[in-house]
Amino acid sequence: MDLTVHPGEIVVLLGPNGAGKSTLCQVAAGQLPPTRGRVTAAGRDVTSLGAPHRSRAGIVLAPETRGIFPTLTIEENLTLHLPDPASRAAVYTRFPALAARRTVPAASLSGGEQQLLSLAPLLQRPPDVLIADEPSLGLAPRVADEVFRLLAELRDAGTGLLLVEEKAAEVLGLADTVAYLAQGRVAWSGPRAEVRVDRLTEAYLGLATEEPDHPSMEARHP
C-alpha cells in the first residue's frame, strides 16, 4: 500500500474488520516490520527503526487498548509524559474531570476518561505524527466528540494524524483525506469532498482492491 500523511492533516483510514488497519498502524509505529516496501519520515528512511526510536523521532502511536498505566494515579500517568508541573496544570485546566480525580488510579476511570488521559498530554507536547487506532472505540457519543475535538486541536498545532476508525459517519467530518482499505490494500484515497457512497460500500464489503506500483508509507513532518 502507498499512503502519505502530511503535517497538519488528518488522514482517516476506513475499512471493515480484518482489512489490515491495525496492522498498518503497527508498521507505521515501528511495532511490526514490513515484509517489503519502506516507511519514511520527513524524507528519512525509518523502516529499520523500532517503536522507541520512532517515538523519540516524533511518531507516536495511540493504541486501541489505551496508552495508560492503570495502577498509577492520574497525576503519576501525566508526570511520566509531562514532568513540568505547569504543563500538567494546563491539562487539568483543559480537562477538569481529570483534575477532580488526580489522585485515583487510572484503572478506576471510565473508558472515555482513560482515553482522554492517554491523549491529553499530547496537547502540551504535540508529536510530529500521531497514529490513532480506533480512538473512539467503546466511548459514549459525548466523550467521543471530546476525543475528536482533541484530535482536531492537534491537527491545528501542526501534527499529521493517521486516524483509524470504523465509525465512518462520525469521523468523516474530521477528515482532510480519506483512504479506504480493503483486503490489505488501499483501494482508494483522496480528499474528503470526493468521498462517494459507492466507494465507502466497496471498502466495507472488501470489494475494491487496487495494488499500488510502489508499496510504501510516508509520514512527512518538519
Class by SSE composition:
alpha/beta
Number of helices in the DSSP assignment: 9
CATH architecture title: 3-Layer(aba) Sandwich
Percentage of residues in helical conformation: 25-40%
- Average of per-residue pLDDT values: 87
Q: Which fold name is given in CATH as the topology?
A: Rossmann fold
Protein name: Putative Autoinducer 2 import ATP-binding protein LsrA
InterPro entries: AAA+_ATPase (IPR003593), ABC_transporter-like_ATP-bd (IPR003439), BCAA_Transport_ATP-bd_LivF (IPR052156), P-loop_NTPase (IPR027417)
Domain ABC transporter: 1-208
Family: Belongs to the ABC transporter superfamily.
Give the arrangement of secondary structure elements:
Blueprint: E1 2-5, E2 10-14, H1 21-29, E3 38-41, E4 44-45, H2 51-56, E5 59-62, H3 74-81, H4 85-94, H5 96-99, H6 111-124, E6 129-133, H7 141-156, E7 160-164, H8 168-171, E8 177-182, E9 185-191, H9 197-205, E10 216-219
Parallel strand pairs: 1-10, 2-7, 2-8, 3-10, 5-6, 6-7
Antiparallel strand pairs: 3-4, 8-9
Protein name: Putative Autoinducer 2 import ATP-binding protein LsrA
GO molecular function: ATP binding; ATP hydrolysis activity; branched-chain amino acid transmembrane transporter activity
Family: Belongs to the ABC transporter superfamily.
